Amino acid sequence: MPLFQNLPPEIATMIWAVLPVAEIRASIPVALEVYQMSVASAIFWSLVGNLATTALLVILIGPISKYLSEKSKFFKLIFDWVFERTRKKFYNKYSRYGDVALVLFVAVPLPTTGCWAGVAAAWLFGIKPKKAFVLISIGVLISAMIVTLITLGILKIV
């Protein structure tokens, strides 16, 4: 029995697209193979779930991290450490490739990429929320195309 079996396939697909590790990488194949949705429906409902998540995360990541940092020394230490480490590790790539780096990071459907990681990266590099949403959305659309083509067997992974 598939997860979310008591829900309509459209809602279940959206939920798959919201999950941090699953996102588009799982929602489209599950929609097509398990729920037997049409390609258009699978893509549509996956994008609705994933892009809604992106919008919420882009809006909330700054205020939530600020609040937690102010209220907890533990969270402040974590945020400071992650921020410094990520900046040192990825600054050269981002400064070299700019916005394209974020789009590609989200677009390539691999584990630890997608809208959740893209929002974190955008926040860490100080990309304004509206711009981050646009760049991440472009990456999500590309990822949806790639995942759909792979699921349909049109695109082969070597």
Automatic annotation (TrEMBL):
The chain crosses the membrane at residues 42-64, 97-126, 132-155. Signal peptide: none annotated. Keywords: Membrane, Transmembrane, Transmembrane helix. InterPro entries: Sm_multidrug_ex (IPR009577). This is Ligand-binding protein SH3.
